[in-house]
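Not sure how to ask, but would you mind making up any protein sequence you like and the tokens describing how it folds?
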Amino acid sequence: MALNTGLLSELKHETENSIKMLERIPMDKLSWKPHEKSMTIEQLAKHIANLPAWISAALLKNELDFAKDDVSPPDFKTKEELISQLNKNTNEALIALEKSE
């Protein structure tokens, strides 16, 4: 079995769990922090939605320069937009993983 086979399965499973979590975010409490040193729930949600993009970046780019590349996740107004961003990033990551046998 190729290494990417297990990774593809794991990414799909984790995306399902991430969607369940993102669906539960209270939109009226986006500034809430689980701890005073933590990011807000909005920042954490954007981070989760953007994590699969790092897979594509690692597999498809020769370098990642934070001074040149904009890696900040886009803002969202609804949970649907947030989940759409997660799905978009996941689909791109799945394609990159499938090509990386």
User: Anything to note?
Assistant: DSSP finds three helices and no strands in the chain. The radius of gyration is 15 Å. The CA atoms of residues 2 and 90 lie 20 Å apart.
